[in-house]
Amino acid sequence: MSDQPETPARPLKVAIVGAGPAGFYAAGQLLAAKGVAAEVDLFDKLPTPYGLVRFGVAPDHPKIKSVTRVYEKIAQKPGFRFFGNVEVGKDITHAELLERHHAVLYATGASHDRRLGIPGEDLPGSHPATEFVAWYNGHPEARDLEFDLSAKRAVVIGNGNVAVDVARMLGLDAGELRETDTADHAIEALIASEVEEIVMLGRRGLAQAAFTNPELRELGEMADCDIVVDPAEVALDEHSARWLERDDADVREKRNVEIATEYSTRTPEGKKRRIVLRFLASPVRILGEDRVEGIEIVRNELVADDDGWLSARPTEETEVIECGLVLRSIGYRGTKLHDVPFDDQRATIRNVGGRVIDENDDEQVPGVYTAGWIKRGPSGIIGTNKKCAQGTVDALLEDLESGQLPEPTVTEDDLPELVAERKPDHVDWSAWSRIDAHEQALGEPQGRPRVKLTRISEMVDVATAAGAVGERT
Ligand SMILES: Cc1cc2nc3c(=O)[nH]c(=O)nc-3n(C[C@H](O)[C@H](O)[C@H](O)COP(=O)(O)OP(=O)(O)OC[C@H]3O[C@@H](n4cnc5c(N)ncnc54)[C@H](O)[C@@H]3O)c2cc1C
Ligand SMILES: NC(=O)c1ccc[n+]([C@@H]2O[C@H](COP(=O)([O-])OP(=O)(O)OC[C@H]3O[C@@H](n4cnc5c(N)ncnc54)[C@H](OP(=O)(O)O)[C@@H]3O)[C@@H](O)[C@H]2O)c1
Question: In this protein, which residues make up the domain named FAD/NAD(P)-binding (predicted)?
Answer without folding.
Answer: 13-170
